[in-house]
Amino acid sequence: MAATKAQDKAELLATYRLMLRMRRFEESLYRKYREGKIGGYLHRYDGQEALVAGVIPQLVKGDYVLSTYRDHAHALACGTEPRAIMAELLGRSTGCAGGKGGSMHLIDPARGFLGGDGIVGGPVPIAVGVGFAIKYRGDRNVCVCYFGDGAMNQGGVHEALNMAGLSKLPIVFILENNGYAMGTAVDRSTGQPDMLLKAQAHGIDAERVDGMDVVAVREAAARAIEAARETSRPQFLEMRCYRFVGHGVADNAQQQRFYRTEEEIAEWKARDPLVKLRELLATAGRLTDADHEAMETEIRAEIEDAIKFAENSPPPPPEALYEHVYAGALADGLKPGRG
Ligand SMILES: Cc1ncc(C[n+]2csc(CCOP(=O)(O)OP(=O)(O)O)c2C)c(N)n1
Ligand SMILES: [Mg+2]
């Protein structure tokens, strides 16, 4: 793990707490899924927490975040209430998307979180629009856009990267390179697995980061965010990481055997970013076992509260089907009873 200055230790403790919340939240969602309380898909972020916890807390008011369908950690880091996230996953009207989006479509515009996206590569062209708006209005903000290695083979992603590079838009692109797009390894899906070359081909500054080391992520993110904010040059960070669980809930241990080995999974789990950061903080005298237990208890209570809130909330009413589909007059025309 990269060395860190003493004054950063307090922030690292907050980072650790956030990562632990993400991990415990994912575990609770999986339990709810198995109880049959969550419909549709569920993609967990276990193992990749550093990519979000090392970046989003460095943003300021007015900055934006876009994510993929693997979006629970991003929402938590943006400050979306756990109650609103849990209720969304359980399909309740109190969810952050009114219970109509589910796991892949968390959203919280008031906190700058412009949402998850079920379309592979979908957030990248949207980030170009957001980056253009920031620049057009003369704001000093940035847009952070997350996407996966599989998205790097999408046509729209390259068109968007080209526009960002050409128009010098204040975007930090974060490639969550976990080595696989569902069951397809990176080197089985592209003739050029060097992701930095792909970004640089569009005139974008690019850097590779160890996504298992949250200190390294924080440092690279600080540089990239400042560069995008100060110079409006887009930045691209390829973060090497690994998802500890299957692609989605349907991708169980048996299915994963078709594309990755037990040894490979064990090697990456030995580099668990939570364990590494806990060790760093413990060695620095910043996190005792008792502190850790207290943190766990608080987080457990927060999750139980979110579950209770969600389970006591009603589902969206049938007429909500007509809301948030079209804007303005067209939407009014579609309301039931209006012809
Ligand atoms: C345009 C599009 N094509 C295919 C899919 C089906 N699909 C869902 S996730 C996925 C893999 C994407 O992998 P990656 O971008 O590496 O993200 P990861 O799941 O590893 O986080 C695919 C092909 C989709 N959702 N959208
Ligand atoms: Mg991937």
What's the helical proportion of residues?
Answer: 40-55%
Uncertain residue segments: none
**What is the first-to-last residue Cα distance?**
63 Å
Please provide the count of β strands.
7
Mean pLDDT: 95
CATH H level, superfamily name: Thiamin diphosphate (ThDP)-binding fold, Pyr/PP domains
**What order do the strands of the largest sheet run in, or round the barrel if closed?**
1-2-3-7-6
What attributes does this structure have?
7 strands, 5-stranded parallel sheet, two-stranded antiparallel sheet, binds magnesium ion, binds thiamine diphosphate, Rossmann fold, alpha/beta
Structure description:
By secondary structure, this protein is α/β, with parallel strands linked by helices. The chain has one domain (6-180, 191-334): Rossmann fold (3-Layer(aba) Sandwich), CATH 3.40.50. Helices cover 45% and strands 9% of the residues. The chain has 13 helices and 7 strands. The protein has a 5-stranded parallel sheet with strand order 1-2-3-7-6, with helices on both faces. The longest helix is centred in the first third of the chain and has 26 residues, at 9-34. It binds thiamine diphosphate and magnesium ion.
Brief sketch in words of this structure:
By secondary structure, the protein is an alpha/beta fold.
